[in-house]
Amino acid sequence: MSAKAHSAAEARYKKLTETPIPKLIPRLAVPTIISMLVTAIYNAADTFFVGRISTEATAAVGLSFSVMAMIQAFGFFCGQGSGNYLSRMLGAKKDKEAEEMAATGLALSFIIGVVTACLIIFNVGILARFLGASESTVSDTTNYLRIIAIGAPFTMAQFVINNQLRYQGSATYAMLGLMSGAILNIVLDPILIFGLGLGVSGAALATITGQIISFFVLVYGTTRGANIRLKPENVKLNSHYLGEIINGGSPALFRQGLTAIGTVLLNRAAGLYGDAAIAGMSVTTRTMMFVVSALIGFGQGYQPVCSFNYGAEKKERVREGYFFCLKYGTIFLTFMAAFCLIFAPQIIGFFRNDPEVIEVGKVALRCQAIALPLLACTVLTNMMLQSIGKGVKASITASARSGLFFIPLILILPKLFGLFGVEISQAIADVFAMLISVPFAYSELKKMKDGNIES
């Protein structure tokens, strides 16, 4: 390491371990909140512009969301699995291990991305039907999925580098990488969808173009400052590093993967009530993602502080950061819940001005808004557990909201309450997820307070 890079690394160590928590976390969180909000906007951009075409096109994009979520799941798996480990190594001043993990995590994401792309492309028709596509939506769904699959390796890789930069405390570079692709996607959507008349295929092309550009901007970010340089010779696909990726990344994979499975089941349940029901639930999902993304961005400002200080044996800063984020995260979600309760019809109508879509969406959005403040505890507990390497507990809390509780509920409640059962399943799952997060958070925070850090 050069003298300049060594000096920058020392400055990073001092910043993350000595800056007062109320100043440090907001400073790191602002770029990540912006990143998450912009990402949510460009995730919603396809829904917004496609909503100008038809209800069927909106439903097709909604059906495809589960596949996009799965692609993102593997990106987060490799990114957070490698990111929180390398952050702990940097905190412990083990730079070589951090460099090898960074390169290994990126290489693994490309391998998984290529395999995933091939599986989707060669089975796209079967996949569209499995997701719940009807005769009126199957063509748009297959076209969208086929194009999205082409960009899968770059989509996964951009999430890996983004997470690794965040865990090194370089939230600004991570933000700029995601923002560049997101802005390009938003600009390209109307041009490709309407200007060139490509319809739903244009929306998919805009998405993967933005993601590929994000990847290259993020790669450039790794060459700046004290950030770890990505070198092919540092790739070590051995049991140690793969095991650490699995341990640290499984919570993200469970969370995102189960979200994808839950979305499939949600769309199939809503599909019994027509394309308008699928579209209404899809718009609700995208809206809630936008709200929760701000909380996640806030929590991501905490994650490098958490893992770095945990590795540096400064446990009280881990505790202080957790309670700081929990307090302000709950306040923010309470405000957003009130907003969604009051303006639910207008929010749904903004994406698709169809009375049937609005009727379904407003009920679902209001139900989820009631439970929204509880998500602060669930999300932040999961982030804390994941960042300190508690893989099993983190995986359970990650899977609770969209898996352990939502999947059984979406299978049972529609049979009991019809469409209303579809609309209330997520809200009830959120309540149970919070209840399971509290004892996990308490047990780990108590260990830190008592000085016992054993698993």
In brief:
With 455 residues, this protein is mainly α. It is 86% helix and 0% strand.
Write the layout of secondary structure elements.
Elements: H1 3-18, H2 21-50, H3 55-91, H4 95-122, H5 124-131, H6 138-150, H7 152-167, H8 171-195, H9 200-221, H10 239-271, H11 275-311, H12 315-351, H13 355-371, H14 375-387, H15 391-404, H16 406-417, H17 419-450
Helix pairs in contact: 2-3, 2-8, 2-9, 2-11, 2-12, 3-4, 3-6, 3-7, 3-10, 3-11, 4-6, 4-7, 5-6, 6-9, 7-8, 7-9, 8-9, 10-11, 10-15, 10-16, 11-12, 11-13, 11-14, 12-13, 12-14, 13-17, 14-15, 14-17, 15-17, 16-17
Provide structural commentary.
The chain has 455 residues and is mainly alpha-helical. Helices cover 86% and strands 0% of the residues. Helix 8 runs antiparallel to helix 9. It starts with a helix and ends in a 5-residue tail after the last helix. 61% of the residues are buried.
Which features characterize this protein?
455 residues; single chain; mainly alpha; globular
Mean pLDDT, to the nearest integer, reads 87
Q: Work out the oligomeric state of the chains in this entry.
A: single chain
Strand content: under 5%
Total beta-strand segments: 0
Proportion in helices = over 70%
Q: How far apart lie the N and C ends?
A: 34 Å
What is the N-to-C order of secondary-structure elements (H for helix, E for strand)? HHHHHHHHHHHHHHHHH
Give the class from helix and strand content and strand pairing. Answer: mainly alpha
Q: How many strands, which pairing sense, and closed or not: the largest β-sheet?
A: none
Judging from the principal axes of the Cα atoms, what is the shape? globular
Rg, rounded, reads 21 Å
Poorly predicted runs: none
Number of helices: 17
